[in-house]
Write a structure and sequence with these properties.
By secondary structure, the protein is of the alpha+beta class. The chain has two domains: 245 residues, BirA Bifunctional Protein, domain 2 (2-Layer Sandwich), CATH 3.30.930.10; 88 residues, Anticodon-binding domain (Rossmann fold). It contains 15 helices and 16 strands. A hairpin with a 5-residue loop joins strand 3 and strand 4. It is elongated and about 95 Å long. The protein binds zinc ion (2 copies). One zinc ion binds next to helix 7.
Length: 416
């Protein structure tokens, strides 16, 4: 028997309400902040991610779905959303538009990871990218938007972790200090970190190994090494967050697992859970467009996994808003009534009323039992008597009361 591949899942109808709600809230947030939708392909040239996310990162080293297609091209299923949007920005000359260009996307992300709660090998992501401005108020806008999305869904007890990881210039000195520190403790590092030490020391701050986490507490802090420009950028961002009344915590060891970040990085997490708890995050990536052979273009973005949001909504017991307008079940008895029922079903839908027809000619009792089990708000019944009188029975499924009236009158009463 076939099953969905490990780390993937089917989203069955009962859960779709959450998906619809979260997607609509996110799109509404984008409208309010002036972000426009972009869609990019699910797969890209593998090189795009190697050049942007970074060769020495977990994503590129261990998690990408990369394969050769039948034409011999090396293809990767998108493991993150920012690089494809930047590729599109360059390819379509979006730097010719008034800057910054504000974009958002929804789409699946693929990473070969060990599956666990809220983490899948295919997950659905919502992301925003503001490309073409260096101003810290833009970083604040992106964070504000993320924060308000969660708030508008009713999520509580979230924390915002914030850091600045500097620019190309000031990070160099920090990386040297970081390396010196870890070299002096090399014996206590895990094998992965010993490898990272020479190639990508910033990644050591990402390690989940308990020994490495302990060592991290004594490591030099990047916030003490950033240059004057990076410092004033970070200060302005924090001022904006205070103005926007968004509580935050500076975490000097927050780096995020991608190489392209500069200056601002942030993560939003529920307070009560540890480990894989981040529900969204992002940061500034001022060098990325240039790394992809575009003109130097500053940018900042944010992404959040929809599965993680929904998991947290369910954990926090947040119920879906009820949808207005009922659904009608068309029940009938006998061959002749069947034709009338088909006609009535069509008329109801034309009037904007959701209508479902009973199947086959089992007893009315059995049909109404089914209508009840399926949660219909009303049933319209056509029996022999109604057929003769050219009328229908309108039944309220909640209390069982029913009234005989014309089809026109029933439609009028059922209209949302
Ligand atoms: Zn700097
Ligand atoms: Zn380690």
């Amino acid at each position: 028997m076939f099953k969905a591949p490990r780390g993937t899942r089917d989203i069955l109808p009962p859960e779709q309400g959450y998906w619809k709600w979260v997607t609509e809230k996110a799109a509404e947030m984008c409208r309010l902040y002036g972000y426009q939708r972009i869609d990019t392909p699910v797969f890209e040239d593998a090189g795009l991610f190697v050049h942007s996310v970074g060769e020495e990162t977990d994503i590129v080293e261990k998690q990408m779905y990369t394969f050769e297609d039948r034409g011999g091209d090396k293809i990767t299923l998108r493991p993150e959303g920012t690089a494809p949007v930047c590729r599109a920005y360059i390819e379509h000359g979006l730097h010719n538009l008034p800057q910054p260009v504000r974009l958002f996307y929804f789409g699946p992300i693929f990473r070969y990871e060990r599956p666990q709660a809220g983490r899948f090998r295919q997950h659905q992501q919502f992301g925003c990218e503001a490309i073409g401005a260096a101003d810290a108020t833009l970083d604040a806008e992106i964070i504000d938007m993320a924060w308000n999305l969660y708030a508008s869904l009713g999520l509580k007890n979230l924390t915002l972790q914030l850091n600045s990881i500097g620019c190309r210039t000031c990070r160099r000195e920090y990386l040297q200090r970081l390396k010196d520190y870890y070299v002096s403790h090399e014996g206590s590092l895990c094998r992965d970190c010993r490898n990272r030490l020479s190639r990508n020391p910033l990644r050591l701050l990402d390690c989940k190994n308990p020994n490495c986490q302990d060592l991290m507490k004594g490591a030099p802090r990047i916030t003490e090494y950033i240059c004057a420009d990076c410092h004033s950028h970070f200060t302005l961002l924090q001022d904006c967050l205070v103005t926007l009344q968004i509580p935050y915590e500076v975490n000097p060891y927050l780096v995020r697992g991608l190489d392209y970040y500069t200056r601002t990085v942030f993560e939003i997490q529920p307070v009560d859970v540890g480990g894989q708890s981040t529900i969204g995050g992002g940061g500034r990536y001022d060098n990325l467009i240039e790394m992809l052979d575009g003109k130097p273009t500053p940018a900042v973005g944010f992404a959040t996994g929809l599965e993680r949001i929904i998991l947290n909504l369910q954990k926090q017991g947040i119920e879906l808003p009820t949808v207005a307008g009922g659904r009608v079940y068309v029940a009938y008895l006998g061959e002749e009534a069947r034709k009338e029922a088909v006609r009535l079903g069509a008329r109801l839908r034309r009037a904007g009323i959701a209508a479902t027809l009973a199947m086959d000619t089992r007893s009315l009792k059995a049909q109404l039992k089914q209508a009840n089990a399926l949660g219909f708000s009303h049933a319209v019944i056509i029996g022999e008597e109604e057929l003769k009188a050219n009328s229908v029975l309108l039944r309220d499924m909640a209390n069982g009361s029913q009234v005989q009236l014309s089809a026109e009158e029933a439609i009028r009463r059922l209209k949302p």
